[in-house]
Design goal:
Strand content: under 5%
Helix content: over 70%
Number of domains: 1
Shape: elongated
Length: about 100
């Protein structure tokens, strides 16, 4: 291979590693840690709700699903709110004054 072709592959492989899905996810997790926490909490609430679906007793299915949706949305909104407050704290309080 000529050196021109090797440099093309080197640039492409560096670009590929910088834009892989895993690296994007890790970068986003470092920038905004509460969004993946909200997503995980949503999954936990839905999983728990589906588990409890079997033992709902005399509660109607639609009412159970509405409660499950509200709990999952509440967890996500709470996590996003905590994330916004954390980023505001990090930018305005911990940022050194210039």
């Amino acid at each position: 291979m000529s050196s021109g072709q090797e440099s093309k592959f080197t640039v492409y492989s560096e670009y590929e590693t910088d834009t892989s899905q895993t690296s994007k996810l890790l970068r986003k997790f470092k920038e905004t840690p509460f969004v993946p926490i909200g997503m995980a909490g949503f999954a936990v609430v839905v999983g728990y709700g589906l588990y409890k679906l079997k033992h709902r007793g005399s509660m109607k299915m639609s009412l159970h699903l509405i409660h499950m949706r509200v709990a999952a949305q509440g967890f996500v909104v709470g996590a996003i709110t905590c994330g916004v407050l954390y980023s505001m704290f990090r930018e305005h309080v911990l940022k050194p004054k210039e």
